[in-house]
Amino acid sequence: MSARPLRIGTRASALALWQAHHLEALLAAHGAPAAQLVHIKTAGDVQSEVPLWQAGGRAFFTKEIDRALLEGSVDIAVHSLKDLSTQLDPGVTLAAALPRTDARDAFLSRDGATLAQLPPGARVGTSSLRRRAFLMRARPDLAHAELRGNVPTRVDRLRGGDYDAIILAAAGLARLQLLGNVTEFLSPEQFPPAVSQGVIGVCARTADAPTLRWLLPLDDREARLTSTAERALLRRLEGGCQVPLGALATVTDRMLRLSASVCALDGSVHLTAQATAPASVSDAAALGERVAEDLLARGAGELIARERGRFTVEAP
Length: 316
Fold this sequence. Notes:
Blueprint: E1 6-10, H1 14-29, E2 35-39, H2 43-46, H3 63-71, E3 76-80, E4 92-97, E5 105-109, E6 123-126, H4 129-138, E7 143-146, H5 151-159, E8 165-169, H6 170-175, E9 184-186, E10 200-205, H7 209-215, H8 221-236, E11 245-252, E12 255-263, E13 270-278, H9 281-297, H10 300-314
Parallel strand pairs: 1-2, 1-3, 6-7, 6-8
Antiparallel strand pairs: 3-10, 4-10, 5-8, 5-9, 11-12, 12-13
Helix pairs in contact: 8-9
């Protein structure tokens, strides 16, 4: 008698399906039962024309999938870890962080100009407050435009002339074989990435031992360490996608290094902090909290509160 298929809850976008199929292949390679993909529409999919920073709440692309997980209609939830709330629902565990790919942001321009070469007033599309803030810091003379839709749609809109340039995560472009459209990769020093950008997170029910048996071996140590530090930082700052925060942790010589930056939406204020710790999960969480406390001591709490008030006023 064959085992019941492992039901993987996923969004239906091209990138989400790539991630789900990638997980399916990893499970098959470890001898797991066959997988069945279950497509789930999230709030972020429904509100496809509304800037996420104007929409109330958090976990726009994950909460419906995690709800299906808790209700038992799926066994596994697969996410871009940067979309996953730092506070998981009781009964849900992050079973695996898959190996991280390129964490950087990528700059795509219609005419091949780099960010520095764009003429003043050029129209740059992004859906991220973080990218908007750091773009203002680097090039305050550029025009900002909202950019929603899945990754191929965003690239098509650039090609169609809706924008002079757009900024996207390098990892998503790589997974969809769209790196040929990249003009340049933006340095993490100038454009610190979103927390856990480039990591695929795999969740399961905490008490589902049969499913966890197949997922736990897929957990990548470096991805787990870096994302733990970055997510602890974000959790302490009480941030979400509406906070202009970038962070990147790296592992070298048994040490974990975390750098983080908070930037005003107009680019006028920029706060940074960094620290190192031994490369262990417990030390990683403490490192994230320590860097967050450093940022708070430098005024990050007041800056975040002010910026939240600013975009709340802008919302319709």
